[in-house]
Design goal:
497 residues; single chain; 3 helices; Immunoglobulin-like
């Protein structure tokens, strides 16, 4: 018995299949961080497994669905029209002429002869109301009810058994053949990758780059290395690759990271002359093109548009880490003069394809003191000189008449009525298009108001007539400290002189 057991055990062990060796882990791709301490050489260890692929045919049984129509019994309701008969009351109505004896009051009069004691007699009319009976006929609606025998149709429900069909999904087994590919491990190999960084790409302080190193090729014989560098500073391309035993040496070279489009005029924003809270007058702007390894120089020139003269020139240098550039201005500049600010930028550095030069020019309009233009009392001294067709409205606008501020007058002339006022004339006028007596006195002929007729002026603009003048003033200019126009209203009563 012991011999038999041992024999069976030996047999069982011999019959067991030999287990395949576990595949070693591979690292065909690795990420390496380069810092200032790394210098100009970076190393990475990679490994890869080799496989062969064998196709074979397999037979498998699958369940294929198909649809079957299956009968089943069901009940349904259907309807049959049946006749029903019965007696029903029916009302019949007709219009009939009905006559009745009715008492009515009749007013009757007759002549009676009356004689008086003096022997004088006269015929007098005597009237009285007496009741009489008359035969009165009217058309009345008379209704009568009688029994009639009627028949009608009724829909009566019935049930019956019917055969119906439903679709069911059944399955049948089918044998299919298909080709599968088996992956069979053959070899494992390791490679040491040495990456030589180009001269000039040294990192500083806390600067970092990430190199993604990837091993390509199906076999050890055709192994190659791909390198992608994620760098906020430089751009690289692969220059060389050499294989020596288990080591692959890769050389990188610098390529331009930026061109004129990336670091050109669009990087300069907010260029203008202003005074900060500390009182420093300076040309200020933001430069989004300040990047590492690029030296940027600025030349600022300010010209007076009114005098066509250059009144200031200054220089500045961009510093990586600060985009805000300030160029102090140490000369007096008239606040109300228009300025032409010209910024010349020169960039150069190892990460540029070539030096970048460009000029950006902005026009900064002068700013006026808004207070005089918003002063309601600046529009005053209304009068109407001349009469009728020759009447002229005059008033004073104390602000300067120049091209820097657009002034519009919306004027209504009203005449007094018994109740309230009525508009005599209304019109909108641009100050630059109006006549002036001197610098500040505005003149408008009443005949130039839209819709005014000579008859209106003869009737309501004669000497001594009172006219109410209502003016809505609108002043618009970017020189008044904002985009919103200044508006105010003024009214005055004047007599035609």
């Amino acid at each position: 018995m012991r011999l038999l057991a041992l024999g069976a055990l030996a047999f069982t062990v011999a019959a067991m299949p030999r287990l395949a060796a576990a595949e070693p882990s591979e690292h065909p791709e690795v990420s390496v961080t380069r810092t200032a301490q790394s210098g100009l050489q970076v190393q990475a260890g990679l490994s890869k497994n080799e496989y062969r692929y064998v196709e074979r045919e397999v037979v498998e049984t699958i369940q294929v669905p198909y649809s079957v129509s299956v009968p089943y019994e069901d009940w349904e309701t259907y309807y049959v029209n049946e006749q029903r008969c019965d007696h029903r009351p029916q009302e019949t109505c007709t219009n009939e002429n009905v006559c009745r004896q009715e008492q009515v009051m009749r007013h009757e009069c007759h002549n009676e002869r009356r004689c008086y004691p003096d022997g004088h007699c006269t015929d007098e009319q005597v009237c009285r109301t007496i009741p009489v009976h008359e035969n009165v006929c009217r058309v009345e609606r008379q209704c009568h009810t009688r029994q009639v025998y009627e028949c009608w149709s009724v829909s009566v429900p019935h049930t019956r058994q019917v055969t119906r069909y439903r679709n069911e999904t059944h399955y049948r087994s089918e044998t299919r053949r298909r080709t599968v590919t088996d992956r069979i491990f053959q070899n494992h190999w390791d490679v040491n990758v040495v990456i030589n960084m180009p001269s000039g790409s040294e990192l500083q302080d806390n600067e970092r780059e990430t190199l993604l190193v990837k091993l390509t090729g199906a076999t050890e014989a055709d192994a190659h290395v791909e390198i992608n560098v994620d760098s906020p500073i430089f751009s690289y391309k692969k220059m060389s690759e050499d294989r020596n035993g288990g080591t692959i040496t890769v050389g990188l070279e610098l390529v331009a990271k930026y061109d004129t489009n990336a670091l050109g005029e669009a990087t300069i924003t907010g260029l203008g002359l202003n005074k900060a809270s500390d009182g420093l007058l300076a040309v200020r702007f933001e430069d989004k093109g300040i990047v590492s390894r690029v030296e940027t120089n600025y030349l600022v020139a300010i010209g007076d548009r009114d005098t066509q003269q250059t009144i200031f020139e200054g220089e500045a240098v961009g510093r990586f880490g600060s985009r805000q550039i300030v160029v102090p201005v140490n000369v007096e500049i008239a606040k109300d003069h228009d300025l032409v600010i010209r910024l010349t930028v020169h960039r150069d550095g190892i990460v540029l394809s070539q030096p970048i030069d460009f000029t950006k020019t902005v026009l900064q309009v002068g700013q006026l003191d808004a207070a005089p233009y918003a002063d309601v009392n600046g529009v005053r001294e209304f009068s109407v000189v001349g009469e009728k067709e020759h009447a002229v409205l005059k008033f004073t606008d104390a602000t300067p008449k120049d091209h820097k501020v657009e002034t519009k007058f919306e004027i209504k002339l009203k005449r007094k009525k018994l109740l309230g006022h009525k508009t005599l004339a209304a019109g909108t006028f641009e100050r630059k298009n109006l006549e002036h007596d001197g610098e500040n006195t505005v003149k408008i002929d009443l005949s130039k108001f839209p819709g005014v007729t000579a008859e209106d002026l003869r009737d309501h603009a004669a000497s001594g007539d009172e006219i109410t003048v209502e003016v809505r003033v609108t002043r618009s200019s970017p020189r008044l400290g904002g985009n919103s126009p200044i508006r105010f209203e003024k009214s005055a009563k004047v007599k035609v002189q």
